[in-house]
Design goal:
The structure holds two protein chains of two kinds. By secondary structure, chain A is an alpha/beta fold. Chain A has seven helices and 13 strands. Chain A has two domains: 50 residues, no CATH class; 258 residues, Purple Acid Phosphatase, chain A, domain 2 (4-Layer Sandwich). In chain A, strand 1 and strand 2 form a beta hairpin. Chain B is elongated, with a radius of gyration of 23 Å. The chains are: A alpha/beta, B alpha/beta. Chains A and B meet through loops of A and strand 7 of B.
């Protein structure tokens, strides 16, 4: 075919060449090593709003003992409020809070009211499990269930999902046997087995309960008699985080894929295992109290097996 | 001694006798076992003290909490179940029947005690 060159204008061949450059109008960019296409001149596919998956964070708060007013802390409600003020001052709002029990000191309705009012100032969803101080009403735990037992089973256990993580709230402070420590009981263990059945081992699991699910110090009741049965059910999962309270001090342990963590109280500290005659409230100088009270932030990061746990006291030092 | 006139003697004897009787009575009362009227178990430092107490049937035992943490008193066979005892609260139970009554704290089950009731 011979060129059909003409004196004036653009010839057919040149016009086709131009179209190759301008017609499709797709520019490829590289972002983080992943090619992405962007729209130019209204031609080509609309850009898919591709967001990097960032994970999320949540808080653990514990042992607020609302109603406690003895020398170790004459104003437990006040220090709870300080903790919530800290929550409200966080630069990034957490997804929700978990309270690992001993919300009140004596299970009194007024104490549950006060706790709810102050914790409500954080304007976050809160998932509760009871401590032994929350179920000492005349009806052995009815008051707690009326307040925080919605959508729970038995003495208040439940599970929920958030951001691909499976959260399980367990109750190990009910029906305790003389001479023993914390207890989950057969009914709850059977429920747990059913709850975990069929879940992919890659599902990150967060379990929370009041009394530690490992033997921190049996002499003081700091452990759970039948926790081994629960941990056996969790063994196959690649990432398990166990959050507890009850001991009013920080403690952390890693065992294989399981990270155990206990939080500070927002009310009063307790002595380290065996360093006092009993695990009662530990009196410290007033200026030291708030360094031993605080809360915990837990971050779920995509692509990271272990959750990042950060404990923050009410004051640094 | 100058008061020991014939007239005063009966009054002085009376006073002396009264004094002797009073001392004797006091001595008897003080040597009686503390179990007689009632009995106490004190709760201190997450422990029941005394851990084992023996009482006669019909005795009322008073459990008193001295800790800054609440405790409760729960019979192992459900014979008694106190409400939660705050600091300085007490729980009383009359042990009418002879036998051995093991109990523990409802909040802190490692805390245990025993009441032995004799007929």
């Amino acid at each position: 075919m011979s060129d059909n060159k003409q004196g004036t204008g653009i010839d057919r061949r040149a016009a086709l060449e131009c179209m190759i450059w301008a017609g499709t109008g797709v520019i490829w960019t590289l972002s983080g090593g992943v090619p992405k296409s962007s729209q130019l001149l209204g031609i080509g596919t609309a850009q898919a709003a591709e967001k990097a998956v960032t994970g999320f964070s949540f808080l653990q708060i514990s042992d607020s003992h609302v109603g406690f007013n003895k020398p170790a802390n004459p104003d437990a409600l006040g220090t709870l409020k300080e903790a919530i003020d800290k929550v409200n001052g966080l630069p990034v709002k957490p997804a929700f809070m978990i309270h690992t029990g001993d919300i009140t000191h004596l299970s009194k309705p007024g104490q549950f009211d006060d706790a709810e009012r102050v914790i409500g100032e954080a304007k976050l969803d809160v998932h509760y499990v009871p401590g032994e101080h929350d179920i000492i009403d005349e009806n052995n735990g009815q008051v707690y269930l009326e307040r925080h037992g919605k959508n729970t089973k038995g003495t208040g256990w439940f599970a929920f999902d958030h951001g691909g993580v499976h959260f399980i709230g367990l109750v190990n402070v009910a029906n305790l046997k003389a001479g023993g420590m914390g207890s989950l009981g057969d009914e709850q263990l059977a429920w747990l087995a059913a709850d975990l059945k069929g879940k992919p081992a890659s599902t990150p699991i967060v379990v929370f309960a009041h009394i530690p699910l490992w033997a921190v110090y049996p002499e003081w009741g700091w452990g759970t008699e039948d926790s081994a049965k629960a941990l056996a059910l969790l063994k196959r999962f690649g990432s398990v985080t166990v959050l507890n309270g009850h001991i009013h001090q920080l403690m952390q342990k890693v065992e294989g894929n399981v990270t155990f963590h206990t939080a500070m109280s927002t009310a009063f500290p307790q002595p380290a295992p065996g360093t006092a005659s009993s695990p009662g409230p530990m009196l410290v100088p007033a200026e030291k109290l708030r360094t031993l009270l605080g809360l915990t932030s837990v971050e779920v990061r995509r692509g990271k097996q272990r959750l990042a746990i950060t404990d923050t006291p009410l004051t640094a030092s | 001694m100058r008061n020991l006139t014939k007239a005063n003697r009966p009054r002085v004897w009376c006073l002396g006798l009264c004094l002797i009787f009073a001392t004797a009575a006091l001595g008897i009362i003080l040597t009686l076992p503390a179990v007689a009227a009632g009995a106490e178990v004190n709760i201190d430092n997450f422990a029941f003290t005394p851990k084992e107490l023996t009482v006669k049937a019909g005795t009322t035992v008073v459990f008193r909490n001295h800790d800054d943490i609440p405790h409760s008193v729960v019979g192992s066979k459900g014979e008694f179940h106190s409400k939660a005892l705050d600091t300085d609260d007490s729980f009383s139970f009359t042990f009418a029947k002879a036998g051995t009554y093991a109990y523990s704290c409802g909040l802190h089950p490692r805390m245990q005690g025993k009441i032995a009731v004799t007929p």
